[in-house]
Amino acid sequence: HVQLVESGGESVQAGGSLRLSCAVSGYIYSEYCMAWFRQAPGKGREAVARMSTDAYATTYANSVKGRFTASRDNAKNTLDLQMNNLKPEDTAMYYCAADLSRKWHCSPLQSDYDFWGQGTQVTVS
Questions:
Q1: pLDDT under 50 in the chain at which residues?
Q2: How many H helices and E strands in the chain?
């Protein structure tokens, strides 16, 4: 049974920082692509950061480059997203997701991810 559980979302002022975490269980976490997505009200789900199996290849959305840093700890089965210099437009529900069909060239498409967490809300004002 694959399970992803996000935490760390909260309300913060513009310019502040947050660190989101995703705890993963139920499969060999270290062998597959992982990603952070976000969805703002009335908008589609956007891939914020996606990481290859060894995190060597991490790709960020242009809107967060230089502000967000994704990391994964394969020993602890966790995925983190450090978010700095937050802006009101970063307000969204943030999800972690797993693609059990890829190790490399991780997809930016929501439809390619097999498992999702329940999401954690980030509000920037």
A1: none
A2: 0, 11
The model's pLDDT over 88-107, given as tens digits with 9 standing for 90+, comes to 999 999 999 999 899 899 99
**3-class secondary structure for 65-91?**
CCCEEEEEECCCCEEEEEECCCCHHHC
Residue-wise pLDDT tens digits, 47-62 = 999 998 876 789 999 9
The angle formed by the CA atoms of residues 103, 60 and 9, to the nearest 5 degrees, is 100
Q: Give the largest CA-CA distance in the chain.
A: 38
Look at strands 120-124 and 11-12 and give their pairing.
parallel
Which is it for the CA torsion 54, 49, 58, 12, positive or negative?
Answer: negative
Contact status, residue 92 vs residue 3, Cβ threshold 8 Å:
no
